[in-house]
Queue: 2 jobs
Job 1
Amino acid sequence: MNDFSYITPTRYIFGHGAEEKVGKQAVVNGMSNVLLVYGKGSVVRSGLLDRVKAALADAGVSYVELGGVQPNPTDDKVYEGINLGRKEHVDGVIAVGGGSAIDTAKAIAGGILYDGDFWDFYAGKAIVEEALPIGVVLTIPAAGSEGSGNSVITSHDGKKISLRTDMSLRPKFSCLNPELTFTLPPYQTACGICDMMIHIFERYFSPTSGVEVTDRVAEGLIMAIMTEAPKVMSSPVDYEARANIMWSGTLAHNGLCGTGRAEDWTSHFMEHEVSALYPEVAHGAGLAVMVPAWMSYVAKRNPAKVAQFARRVLGVTEADDLRAANNGIERLREFFTSLGLPASLTSLGVKASDIPVMVRRLHENKGAVIGAYVPLVAQDTTAIYESAL
Amino acid sequence: MNDFSYITPTRYIFGHGAEEKVGKQAVVNGMSNVLLVYGKGSVVRSGLLDRVKAALADAGVSYVELGGVQPNPTDDKVYEGINLGRKEHVDGVIAVGGGSAIDTAKAIAGGILYDGDFWDFYAGKAIVEEALPIGVVLTIPAAGSEGSGNSVITSHDGKKISLRTDMSLRPKFSCLNPELTFTLPPYQTACGICDMMIHIFERYFSPTSGVEVTDRVAEGLIMAIMTEAPKVMSSPVDYEARANIMWSGTLAHNGLCGTGRAEDWTSHFMEHEVSALYPEVAHGAGLAVMVPAWMSYVAKRNPAKVAQFARRVLGVTEADDLRAANNGIERLREFFTSLGLPASLTSLGVKASDIPVMVRRLHENKGAVIGAYVPLVAQDTTAIYESAL
């Protein structure tokens, strides 16, 4: 087990009507005039935004609005939010939505208090020392941004750039009402489930040994997600199942499963290059393809942990590690397919001729050698993309 | 799943030399002159206290000392600490030790800022609105107080009274160095392992349904503890095993496993009456006896969750719930015995003639009906104590 320093200071308000607590939580966290960040469409149409505004008004908290955040959020909305927030002297940022709204809110919360360009944080040129307090009303369990200190923003030239902070960009509070997820379309629900599972994988498939406790917690979370996922797919208004998925999505990415070990985000990074080039590809859908492809490739060199996963989580009984690993990967593929997720890049519209571009960008962004569970060079990542076609 | 509000804002500094960070963490958390709370003997003899003092001095933090905290800590040390802390104008309290030192530090940190008697908090007459910041250097993985908002203090007339706060008494930081636990005597190690397992049980054996995610996390933690426990017993300086046990002890009691469900602390309360009457009985040893006795009794009325535990955690394959439950309880007893823990109250020196006293006190303290998984009256708790003899 590696040494670590870990803090997760977000207050989770979980359950029925959680969004109605947003006003009180804003006040408790020192907010009196907030920037409300949201996407477009559903949060407005559903009446959620109006309920959030009413809760803020009831608590005496004023607000200005930044709507229209897009999936794979871009820097233009961040700049717009920083300018608006400064002009209106906001003292807090509240996101209403999923990962895109939350990640944008985080970039704004850090950027408003920073003299330079907010991209400095994402480029590793500056550390987010302070940020306005951030609140969340979550509508999509997937990205886990409601409990993390992370944010992913896409630049003008199509690069998805991740920022990870220790504490400064962790929300002060997150309101999680499973009922708000009843109306999520099935494909989006499935993509979210895949995304949260892979947030756990990226920590679980680690070269660090002696981490039985976080292994078992990670395996437990995956098992819970795999038990509850078919329920939400077949019965979208099953409160308990939605609640289990929602809370799993937060625990998947608040850092708990990563304590004490090296992580390996290779398949996430490989997917980022797919959806950067093909913006219509949902992150979770791209992951459903890339992760089994990555697992198959790395299992050949280092099957042990994949075999452990196959045995403990998927009930594989095969004694040989590589065979157990491959059986498990097959079951995982079947699970993703059963949720309606794609099994190949081709089915997502990705062309073989674009693989060299994705490989080039991947290694430009992340270095010549990427990965910890199995370090990979361009030859390897090319083979993985090709196997995923 | 029940609605919940949950926050765990403690920074965990985990690993080699974690105690050396105590000075920096004190400063980060606004401390400049702290009350150092510790027991007697081992933290002094081992040189740990000197290292902590040096780390504080290096960071420019001054300190006054309150040593001599006893196991099952009593209110006299709390009053002494409150008086000393006020006189010396301390702005933080740092515990060096296990649950007794930490629980005492918490009572002091809340009491110093409170005009009335600190017992008001424990008697439910007042809520801890504010407290001095609390820091921890942990030496005994067991009580989980390093990550909880809870504190247990024993009154002059021998009552162990628990206080649970939402956030105000949660430590700001806890330094967890597994090496500090290498020298724990085997019996104390075993008692700690039992204590942390039962912190999970008290949340797991709940009447609340629809909590697959926290069930799986709880089961994972128990499995990890049961895997690592024999290693630390046979090889006390096994760093990885000690690290897994230490981190498990924190996660067992920081509230994670209780999110979204009713808890049932009956067996803890029943043990408290044992060790209140027989102060020489270690809490974990008393639990090793009381918990299987409690489980056997409640399984007759409600076997389902005990059977789930037996099957998922202990590998029991029996189809009938009650039989599965009983098989599991038998395996659990064997596990505790294998650690050198007692299997009966008699072996702890408890007399049958004291059962009526313990039952009377139990229900005086906790009400005529106690428990959530299976509600119990005096007739039931009498039968459980008798079965544990």
Job 2
Amino acid sequence: MAEINLRPLADRVLVEPSAAETKTASGIIIPDTAQEKPQQGKVVAVGNGKVDEPMTVKVGDTVLYGKYGGTEIKHNGVDYLIMREADIFAVIG
Amino acid sequence: MAEINLRPLADRVLVEPSAAETKTASGIIIPDTAQEKPQQGKVVAVGNGKVDEPMTVKVGDTVLYGKYGGTEIKHNGVDYLIMREADIFAVIG
Amino acid sequence: MAEINLRPLADRVLVEPSAAETKTASGIIIPDTAQEKPQQGKVVAVGNGKVDEPMTVKVGDTVLYGKYGGTEIKHNGVDYLIMREADIFAVIG
Amino acid sequence: MAEINLRPLADRVLVEPSAAETKTASGIIIPDTAQEKPQQGKVVAVGNGKVDEPMTVKVGDTVLYGKYGGTEIKHNGVDYLIMREADIFAVIG
Amino acid sequence: MAEINLRPLADRVLVEPSAAETKTASGIIIPDTAQEKPQQGKVVAVGNGKVDEPMTVKVGDTVLYGKYGGTEIKHNGVDYLIMREADIFAVIG
Amino acid sequence: MAEINLRPLADRVLVEPSAAETKTASGIIIPDTAQEKPQQGKVVAVGNGKVDEPMTVKVGDTVLYGKYGGTEIKHNGVDYLIMREADIFAVIG
Amino acid sequence: MAEINLRPLADRVLVEPSAAETKTASGIIIPDTAQEKPQQGKVVAVGNGKVDEPMTVKVGDTVLYGKYGGTEIKHNGVDYLIMREADIFAVIG
């Protein structure tokens, strides 16, 4: 994964969503009946955090996040999501 | 209960809901007429808390939480809920 | 009153509601025309409070609280309410 | 006025409303056209305040408060109102 | 202007509205087309302020305030308004 | 511009709107299609700010502000707007 | 890019939107199906920030921001947007 030339501001995180989301390599299956289906992706870039709130996730982390969090952007042909760290539920692995 | 490879962020808690919820081993019966029926489960993973707000629950605690708190995820064939600690009412035992 | 094996989290309080609520032993009569009729009960368990907000009520206190505060739970055959301390109006006696 | 066995919590105040509210001894007349008619009463018990917010009113103060503030309770045959200090407009005298 | 026996609480201010409000002695004319017509009056009593927020207006100040701020009360035959200092726009003179 | 006898409270600013608002001397043209058309005016009086929030604009500054910010008042035959500093977008020049 | 005579207040940023927004020089393509399409522009002027919140973006930065953030203004024949720094998602490059 090459360095990306996008620097998220404040508590924002740039995430590259995983291709297959119904059954992933780490074994998470997203149930159909979930109210808010969590999504999985890889952290590509991380902001510097807010005053007194340092960031927790790091570039390379695989994260779970809510379905409706973040804004889609396409950069050099790749789809990304940019979201606030508070929209991330957990780090996998 | 094996170690799980999911690390909740901030004040989030990963809970494995108890199988039988109308009558549990510890004797709690969920009344039918309750406005918001509390649910019971076991804490599987705990975040590091927020700035100046350390976490109270520990892995292994049995907890009561609201019916509509948390997001369902399935991991290695097991159903979990991920919620904020503020959605947990009490620890049993 | 035996020790109960439920530990409320943060600023939550476990209350056992009084049986007779229209006329109690201490002489409080709940008027019919009140917009929000206060209820009376005994504190059974108390959380550790929040950061910089210690708890005021103690186990054994008789308290007045709002009609719509708290969540009902049944434990070992007894009905309880779990509520935040801010939902409690006053301590009697 | 005998000591009352009700201790309001935090920033709450127990008030005994004045009997005659259209024309009082201190000469306040509540106008008919007021959007929110202030009420008058005597402070009977006062909470300990919140963190960093000590209480201002004292037992025995005559106070003006909004019509819709507070919750009615009846204790030993007397009608009281329990309200937050922020619902009190002014002290008379 | 005699001393008044009403002590506003916290950040509240007691104001005696000016009699003529379309054309005053200091020359302010309230336009008909204003969305929220400011009113003018004299400060009669001032609270002690809130923690870390001392009061700015003084007894005797002529103030401009919003039309819908404050609660009307009548005391010894005089109409007053009681409002929060934040409802006052400016001091005249 | 003579001294004005109005002292805005806290973070409020008294502004004299510019006469011509579609094309001004400094060359700003307000587009017709803007969702919220900014307005331009001259600062006439400034409050002392709030605790820990000193004021930025000064008397004499030309400012841009939102169309729906502020309250209209007329003083000695001149139309003014009184608004909070947070309603001001930028200083021109 | 000449110096501009507009000084944004507090945490506001003046941005000159990029001309072509469906395909830019740096290769970002805005997808049609995005809920909120991010826009791209160049920072022209930056406020001094708020108390304890210094600014992150600098004049000359190329930024991504939400479609509905900011207010349009036209100055010396150029269209600008004025927005809060919190409305900016990321800096490019």
